[in-house]
Design a protein that fits this description.
alpha+beta; ATP-binding; 2 domains; globular; 5 strands
């Protein structure tokens, strides 16, 4: 539909993928090297700047592959959540996915010795061996592309506070259009871009922690799955205010959430405010 096409072009413009003539910008050309959604390509490229490439490669692969969480048969949901709890990362689902992938890699490596097979390991934790194997293949392909176009690839630093912040910045660089706020403290998330209310997907690590963050960045929104947002991580309004392109923010529909963010932007330090104006 023409509306969808216009929206896609607008999104590319917000992501700095188009030049003033509507053609791909230099940045857009590099983004197009990756067989990924534009937002994910942007986040992956931003990870070069924020030095969290290793982790973003894993996140990109995990969200591109099918879900690694096996559907729990009726009556076994709590058991599945309990299995997944050991991988939960307090920073959110994107980070939990890194934990899962790293644990899978470790299990696969140790299976050559006396350990159980990767398939059995996945079964023990209600995870999909096929999805994780696919994520490994996708990750290797993305890494190959980065090497081919000579992008800087930082060493893994997963686990440090600095690294968590860097990953959040990289994610926000691409997914600033995928922000939602819990408007009533009970997990009803109103998306910034349109007045749609959504809930966290049942596989979210926040379901395990019983903690409901106020502001989140989400990978995707699914109407078919009970209006749920999937792969969700907490962000701070301050970080959003620092990284959001000003012309995108100004085009957002009026809302209480926008007013809160505007207040944050108004109080940004001069350096950040200047950066906003330049975007």
């Amino acid at each position: 539909a023409p509306e969808s096409l216009m929206q896609a072009l607008e999104d590319l413009d917000y992501l700095a993928a188009l030049d003033n003539n509507g053609n791909l910008s230099e940045f857009g050309i590099i983004m197009s090297e990756f067989p990924l959604d534009p937002q994910l390509s942007k986040s992956l490229l931003a990870s070069c700047e924020f030095e969290c490439v290793d982790e973003m490669l894993t996140i990109a692969a995990m969200v591109t592959a099918p879900s690694c969480f096996l559907p729990a048969p009726p009556g076994t949901e709590e058991m599945a959540l309990s299995c997944w709890r050991r991988f939960s990362h307090p920073a959110g689902d994107h980070f939990t996915l890194v934990n899962i992938f790293n644990a899978f890699k470790e299990a696969s490596a140790s299976s050559t010795g006396q350990g159980c097979s990767p398939e059995q390991w996945c079964g023990d934790y209600s995870l999909s061996w096929g999805a994780l194997r696919m994520a490994g293949i996708i990750r290797a392909e993305l890494l190959e592309i980065m090497k081919r176009i000579e992008l800087p690839i930082s060493e893994p630093h997963f686990g440090s506070e600095e690294n968590v912040l860097s990953i959040r910045k990289a994610l926000l660089s691409g997914y600033f259009m995928h922000i939602a706020r819990d408007v009533d403290g009970s997990g009803n998330y109103l998306m910034l871009t349109h007045k749609q209310v959504a809930q966290l997907h049942p596989s979210s690590s926040y379901q395990n922690s019983r903690r409901i963050p106020e502001w989140v960045l989400f990978h995707e929104f699914s109407i078919s799955e009970d209006n749920s947002i999937r792969v969700v991580s907490e962000i701070s309004p301050h970080l959003f205010a620092e990284l959001v392109p000003q012309y995108y923010f100004s085009n957002l529909p009026p809302s209480e959430s926008k007013d809160i963010l505007q207040e944050v932007i108004n109080h940004l330090p001069p350096a950040s405010a200047t950066k906003e104006e330049q975007k």
